[in-house]
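Give me structure tokens for this 237-residue protein.
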Amino acid sequence: MKTKHLKIGLALITATLTMALFNNFNFVSFKFPAVLESVLESARVSHAKELLGKKYSGSDAEKMGGQKALNLMIQKKIQSSLGPKYKAQARAIARTVIAESAKYELDPVFVLAVIATESKFNPEAIGSVGEIGLMQIRPETAKWMAQKIGMKWKGKESLKNPTVNIKLGTAYMDYLRNKFTSKPARYVSAYNMGPLNVRRLVAKNVVPAEYNSKVMKNYKDLYAKIADKAPRMVATN
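Here you go.
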């Protein structure tokens, strides 16, 4: 009898808790992972052609055309590149890279190449002249850029936040791209050495190459690694 009464009691408690859960959703919270947006293919291809010029034909960037899983591959690459402390943020970082790249019509793999060149995916990296975070932005440049795009500036420590850093870094790259009329060697170099120094070199008929070469090498290497692990697309009739 005691066992029977115990079972009845447990059933009543279970029923009461179930009713409470369904009648008051504040009792529990359900969290679902944020959707990982698709890469804006038209912008990716257009920017890849701009960056690679004649070398786009036959490149891994071209081979990735129509690959719907590119967003997941970007997330996977970010996750494998981050230190243990930040791996849990890989999805959020991937979402920011993809969203901001679409906003400024950049190839998200190019943004990853800049990050790889600047900080090797270390959100806490500090440069020799005070650059901070994934995209190694100087606080004064970041503050100016934040004001320019209407983003609230919360001080230089906020640059260690990957989302904040990427938003400001991509906005600055877009600004430079417009300043140098979509000439990759110039705007990529300007990201590192400043637009004034690039203009001085150009005035002397010198093409800034060192930093641009590093970014482009990382760009091609990243595409090679991503393409190598990409799901094989099966042709359909």
